[in-house]
Amino acid sequence: MKLSADWLRADHVQRVLALLEAGGHQALLVGGCVRNAALLQPVSDIDIATDARPERVLALAKAASVKAVPTGIDHGTVTLVVDHQPHEVTTFRRDVETFGRRATVAFSTDLAEDAARRDFTMNALYARADGTVLDPLGEGLADLHARHLRFVGAPGARITEDYLRILRFFRFTAWYGDPSLGMDAEGLAACATHSAQIETLSRERIGHEMRKLLAAPDPAPAVAAMAASGVLAQVIPGAEATALAPLVHLEAGLAPEPIRRLACLGGTEVAERLRLSKPETKRLTAIRAALGETMEAAELGYRYGAEGARDALLIRAAMLGAERPSLDLNRVTFGAAQRFPITAADLMPGLEGPALGMRLKELEARWIASGFTLTRDALLRGGA
User: Fold this and answer.
1) Which of 27, 142, 150, 286 makes the best surface tag, with the fewest CB within 10 Å?
2) What is the pTM for the complete model shown?
3) What share of the chain is helix, strand, coil (3-state, %, to 5)?
4) Strand 27-30 and strand 126-127: pairing?
5) Tens digit of each residue's pLDDT (9 = 90 or more) over 185-238
6) Which domains are delineated in the chain?
7) What are phi and psi of 84, to 5 degrees?
8) In terms of Cα–Cα distance, which of 74, 86, 261 is closest to 174?
9) What range(s) does the tRNA nucleotidyltransferase/poly(A) polymerase RNA and SrmB- binding domain occupy (predicted)?
10) Backbone dihedral region of 202: left (phi > 0), alpha (psi from -120 to 50 degrees) or beta?
11) Which residues contact 225 (CB under 8 A, 6 or more apart)?
12) Which residues pair with residue 68 across a beta bridge?
């Protein structure tokens, strides 16, 4: 197989590859950029594997006047910056000892050894500068074409090397797997066996993986498998996946949005366990609060904003197995655009303190009951 992609032919990529090859070393694109290019999907990060040791990469870069940053030199990674574009160059490695997310590695000159330490077969693909794809394990291309996500070697061994691979298994399946195939049975069983070890991972890393998983076009099958295997309960206690598939169906025309989908899953301590940002936490809280309301859709939009109210109505419909509430969504948009015409200054100095607050609430309730039609003057006069 041979890749054909604009980014592969880009001068900055070819310069880095040529720099290493001119120094007498292998220079191979690896991992996600190869996988995505083969699937004709966008590529964000460009990773390069080489048999050159990191100090040799630094020396070659210096000789070629290329900026080099020793971003992970102890693990063999040097970032080369060409035309303001970063390229991570990592020496072939083999694991000597692993400790969860930490590992003792030895540098290698053997491409097969480097491939054998990677997580999934479709991520153990390499490509030369001309786009020729190399499959050292002899499994990656077949699995990629079949959209079958599998661990490299024994799933249990790969997981104990790095327990984050449990979550990556579900995330990559959601993005690159064929839903009709279901999850790889051996991999899923290994994830279930080691699911309690998720507690040993940092919450930032867990949150990162969950955001990426829930941003997939349709994460519902993968999340359902997470729930069935006990992994979801380890990530978010009390979460349920049953309404996610209906929600994805109802989202037609909307961009995938992780926080909306998190709200659909429910569960406890979500913001803390996933280390959500303040804006993410605010959005999740608004959706959940709107979900608990029984008010008319326009008022829901007024009180919780267009997005929060819309998402709450979609989630409610998903939970009830209902059709998309298009009319209600139009009312949400209408309500969100309304602005209460009375301010505290309009009622002062005649009212102050608690009495002022109560009067404002009374007038706001009348205004909403009127369908947002009563004007400022009508409200102040007490007219209907």
Assistant:
1) 142
2) 0.89
3) 55, 10, 30
4) antiparallel
5) 999 999 999 999 999 999 999 999 999 999 999 999 999 999 999 999 999 999
6) 1-146 (3.30.460.10), 342-381 (no CATH)
7) 65, 10
8) 261
9) 184-240
10) beta
11) 170, 173, 182, 183, 188
12) 80
